[in-house]
Design brief:
The protein has seven helices and 13 strands. The chain has about 270 residues and is of the alpha/beta class. It has two domains: about 220 residues, Rossmann fold; about 35 residues. The termini are far apart. The protein binds flavin-adenine dinucleotide.
Amino acid sequence: MQIVACIKQVPDTTQVQIDPVTNTLVREGIPFIVNPYDTHALEESLRLRDKFGFNVTAISMGPPNAEATLRKALALGVDRAVLLTDRVFGGADTLATSNVLTEAIRKLGETDEVGIIFCGKQTIDGDTAQVGPGIATRLGCTQLTLVDKILELDPIKKRIKVSRKLEGRHEIVEAPLPVMITVVRELNRPRYPTVPGRLESMEREVEFWNNQTLKLDEQSIGLKGSPTWVSKIFSPQRDKGEMIGDGVHDPVGTANLLIDKLLSKDLLSI
Ligand SMILES: Cc1cc2nc3c(=O)[nH]c(=O)nc-3n(C[C@H](O)[C@H](O)[C@H](O)COP(=O)(O)OP(=O)(O)OC[C@H]3O[C@@H](n4cnc5c(N)ncnc54)[C@H](O)[C@@H]3O)c2cc1C
């Protein structure tokens, strides 16, 4: 059985710069990282491999420089790394992104049955949490989101039991394989690559797949295949705060000033 981990390359910065002309993130000249939630998806894939001997493949859709992100996965010990890169994949929204990832998973499954697809809960740039469920819908398999613990896995009976982290409670769910799982940070503590692993990863192959490999209808991918397009992105403008009173030396006076301020702006009714 094979496990596929979907990892996205994201900007390593909170100082987002927006290209005012294209309304897209400026990606030149800024460092990239593996999307933080995806490091937990990778880690869980490797733990199940260590326990059951599954093959682990890391896949990523992105520009050619996303190769560096997949080399980090190779340094951690994944068996295979596939970069899905082609200009026709560019400008994709979550639907078009999930179409490409789904077809790549189908293709990987032709040689070794895919039992589990791991995704992060969400990315730190698009932040939609839509791609994982999109993949499951297109593959027609079960989806278990927000997983913080794998309780049981029976590869023979093809069943899995997990705990899902919900608002103020947990849900225990059992499901048949294949399954798409989105993970939260509480699931595990990602391992660090070893020095030999990092050195080896420089020599190992990252496979480059384009649309000649996937043969997807161009109307279903990239900008053409994206019903959602970002009309405007802008950094939130925060008004400069105003210092009121002296909370250290005169807390009561300051509190009264604050109440007056809030009342004057109808932000408070007493
Ligand atoms: C600021 C901003 C806002 C955006 N808003 C929208 C929007 O509202 N609607 C929309 O459809 N698109 C939007 N996009 C585009 C969207 O980011 C891309 O479609 C992106 O490829 C996937 O969406 P996401 O980043 O939200 O992923 P999420 O759905 O948050 O990702 C969940 C998981 O899916 C996997 N995954 C996601 N992308 C990839 C990838 N490229 N390769 C491998 N695995 C992946 C990872 O495991 C990830 O943890 C936006 C992009 C930006 C930068």
